[in-house]
Amino acid sequence: MFTRSRMPKIAAITMTGALLSACAANTAGSSAGAGSGAPGKGTEAVGFIFVGPKDDYGYNQAAYQGSQAVAKAFPDLDVLTAENVPEDDNAARVMNSMIAKGAKVIFATSYGHLDAALKVAAEHPDVAVVQQGNLITKAVPRNAGTYFGTVYEPVYLAGVAAGRATRSDKLGYVYAFPINQTISNINAFQRGAASVNPKARTFVVNTSSWCDPAKQAEAAANLLKQGVDVITQHQDCTATIIKATEAAGKYTVGYHADASSLAPKGWLTGSQWQWAALFTDIVRTARDGKFTGSKYNANYRVGFKTGQNPFVQSPFGPSVTGEVKDEVARARSWLATAQGSPFAGPVTDQGGTVRIPKGTVPDYPAIEKIDYFVDGVVGKLPK
For the domain that residue 119 is a member of, what is the CATH number? Predict the structure, then answer.
């Protein structure tokens, strides 16, 4: 069950076996799918589910901070949060339990929560259900949608800083799964580095997990043994890799959240989420009864070209010179133009095939469909 904290209008839970049973029992007794009004009209609560802990120095921490911004913006609402929610049917159980507690807006914040989110949306047409990160390619309920920022744009900028910092011309990238998001990030990082250092190469290691500290430590050690002197990552929890890189006296590029405190000497910069504005706008849209047919249905994307990218660049570390900062700033301005993109052609893959011709600037949906590594990335995609 949900336990309401002593803090006004905020509730938090942690996933356990007992909780899952309670959620299932609670859902069975609820009037699932009742109501015919516009999604979110008369909202009394908002629910957020996270695949990991709220203090992971990464993906889940950023999303949790966004939920707290919603609590601050709407003090009359209950904000229900659930940590460590698996990417399976348990996610649907938790969301249904939140709906039973009055939630009319649900944020399913992990990539693997999509199927559960769409199932819940279909069962509850009066609830706005949004999922973070996926690209929907099929017909879905009108009260469902996805949202995300163009992550690869600030990752490209971080690549510029990394390309200038490396002395070995070997960069490292620890990633979880070979999904379009991670592939685009790795490619953008390499292309950013190569734009200022053509000799730069990005060595990749796959962990097959969003957060496994043991695998992360092994991956970082492997990269360091290969002579990599700048390491970045696409992992939900980032502390293990950052600490290992700092201990080795090498440079770190962060991801998801500002973790510069973990690497006071080696921190270069990073990419981090600032979800507050987007989350509050989604809730406001739903409360006004305008979610159905709004910009948040299907696939909503914002980036440097729209001026609303929730993914921003982290602060620079002490070793980044003013010259490099200016270089990054110029690249940032270029990305916001019609001609600017981490994937402005020509783009060549590892095998030497031109995938994006010279003069072509792919749009955001096209970039999210990239399924190959670009020239300069060392390592193969798992089959």
Answer: 3.40.50.2300
